[in-house]
Amino acid sequence: MPSNKVPDDINASEITPKEVYLNRREFMAASAMAAASAAIPSLSEAGPHGGTPLKTAKRVDYAASEATTNYENAAGYNNFYEFSTNKEDVAVLSKGLRTRPWTVTIEGLINKPKAYDIDELIKLFPLEERIYRLRCVEGWSMVIPWVGFPLEALIRRSEPKTGAKFVEFTTLLDPAQMPGQRREVLHWPYVEGLRLDEAINPLTILSVGMYGEVLPNQNGAPLRLVVPWKYGFKYIKSIVKIRFVEQMPVTSWMKAGPLEYGFYANVNPEVDHPRWSQAKERRIGEFLKRKTLMFNGYAEQVAALYAGMDLRRFF
Ligand code: MTE
Asked: Whose CA is nearest to atom 17 of ligand 1?
């Protein structure tokens, strides 16, 4: 992650009002009526941000009502090295990524391995909206309304065997579609991992959407991991494989910089990255820095997972 540049400040009036996406059903109904009365082709497939709207069974705000990041920043300032190391170029370069058909293979130490078609997988679990803080190790943060389902639901369905201790996730490998993979910026394909107990923590979700719509390609369509108490690099995008293993996976970032990126990557204001202090963060859209919270503010839900561990050593 060579650059820690953040976009220009935006003022509050530019932040997308929550009503814009929360009332999307009304918006859709109104625009469908307007389209019908004006006898122009209906735009009923697209939500306010241009993506397909997703229905959610429930919505929980895990960001203490902190302002949601403006959609343009969440979808326009991205780390996705398969396309570019330039955050502003990812959205354009990933536009053509084919996310259908898409297969997600669940394998390894489980009783029920299976290659799921992405649409089949999504239909298995009720979708929820989860508003979470996202803290990047580079020092910026956002608040994102994700749409997804608990990873735990898929894990239970797959029936892990007793030897399964970790879960390894892999991104698509396709240099023809992903120009960044033609250079050895990272060890491809992108690999991430969680301990099994982290993976089944109720906060951990597989995301298929954000801001009420299907995930834009630049944000990891069609399926990405969201682990809100960890740094953003754990949120692996465009997943094609989930494998249950006995040994701790070696992730792409651990290979790239073993002294900089550990397996755990828990947000911790007391343990600095060699190049960036982790004590404070800059919320995209805000001027003053704010203090970074232990486990990104989710200590109550996850601190017990690390009881007795030296978090300086297991960073
Ligand atoms: N997943 C893949 N496959 N490739 C990547 O380069 N970047 C990570 C993570 N997931 C990355 C990835 C990093 S460093 C961050 S901070 C987040 O995605 C950024 O997610 P966002 O673009 O949705 O904000």
From this structure: 232
